[in-house]
Design brief:
The chain is an alpha+beta fold. It has 2 domains: 9-121, NusG, N-terminal domain (Alpha-Beta Plaits, 2-Layer Sandwich), CATH 3.30.70; 136-183, SH3 type barrels (Roll). It has 3 helices and 11 strands; from the N terminus they run βαββββαβαβββββ. It has a 5-stranded antiparallel sheet, with no helix packed on it. Strands 2-5-1-6 form a 4-stranded antiparallel sheet, covered by helices on one side. The protein has a two-stranded antiparallel ribbon with strand order 3-4. A hairpin with a 4-residue loop joins strand 8 (148-155) and strand 9 (160-167). The longest helix has 15 residues, at 20-34. The N and C termini lie far apart (62 Å).
Amino acid sequence: MSDLELERKWYVLKTVSGKENKVKLYIENEVRDNGFQEYIGKVLVPIEKVIQMRKGKKIHREKVYYPGYVMVEANLIGEAVHAIKNVPGVITFLSEKKGGSALPMRKEEVNKMLGNIDQLSDYYKNVNIPYVVGETIKVIDGPFSGFNGTIEKINEEKRKLELAVLIFGRKTPLELNFTQIEKI
């Protein structure tokens, strides 16, 4: 077969939500066990890194970016299609109409998705700052947990905020991380 016939495109699989990584693993096993390497390339479950505060500690978690979807680079001819469709947890390929043939992703979508994966690994470093100077927020971590404060300065490089907290009727300046506060 010529290379042209085996050109692969990116497709989106609708899957059972929460089973994305299992689906990815199953497809990779199918490829390995049945010699579908020519037909099926990469299988992706885009994730984003999230920071949560638990008991005063930062916890880095990974969260599926598109719950219920898995991206597959494939040439959908022959057995490969059936192998993918029969994977436990796979509902169907995204298509234009119900029961229609699988619709490949557009080049811009693929670039955005692949670019997003790279960007998502830096995600929490470059997360948009959802706060503005003058806004009143609640401290959720540290010795002043439970106090409300007013944002006086935002330092994007250091990822810190300076706020004024009223303690015993007196304004007290504090410097906190974005993860130590939340909107009221």
